[in-house]
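[Meeting: bench + compute handoff]

Bench side (C.D.) handed over the final construct sequence. Compute side (W.E.) agreed to return the predicted structure before the next meeting so the bench team could plan truncations. Sequence as handed over:
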Amino acid sequence: MRIGLISFLLLVITFVSCTDVNRCYDSVDTLMISSFSVSGFKNITSMRIKGLNHNDVGGILFTDSTSSLTKRAPLPLSLSADSTGFIFTVNGKIDTLFVRHKMIISFISEYCGFAPAYTLSGYRRSKGIDSVRITDAKVNSQSIVKTTNDQNIKIYFNSATH
């Protein structure tokens, strides 16, 4: 009788602990949505983006070899520094951009935990980048759901050099 009761309780505990209630359905990925174009309506025929000098944002982050007037890419920001560097290779030309930001940790939910949230505060660019426009300084876990015409930052490359 005792073994049957213990087996029944273990079975009930197993089923209760496997419900969908304990799952995380919210995004905890915090990515800066970026769009790119070349001034003068020139096509971007190839693009590669690498992280610069940050262990948590190193390596190739984005690559695309389809020809288009604009490109969009979700880019991670540094968890350990107050700026994030990127190396852009656009149409064979190399440029760099450093984005300054402040980070705070935001509580998402009991089951999802915490995620970083950023406020973009400025940038430093190389000469091949014509201009940069911060269109939404708040980068958080909801940024990934931005529509096609919405982004956190818009980068225009100089048509004379690209």
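W.E. noted at the follow-up: The beta strands are 31-38, 47-52, 60-64, 70-76, 83-90, 93-109, 113-125, 129-134, 138-139, 153-157. C.D. will use this when planning the next construct.
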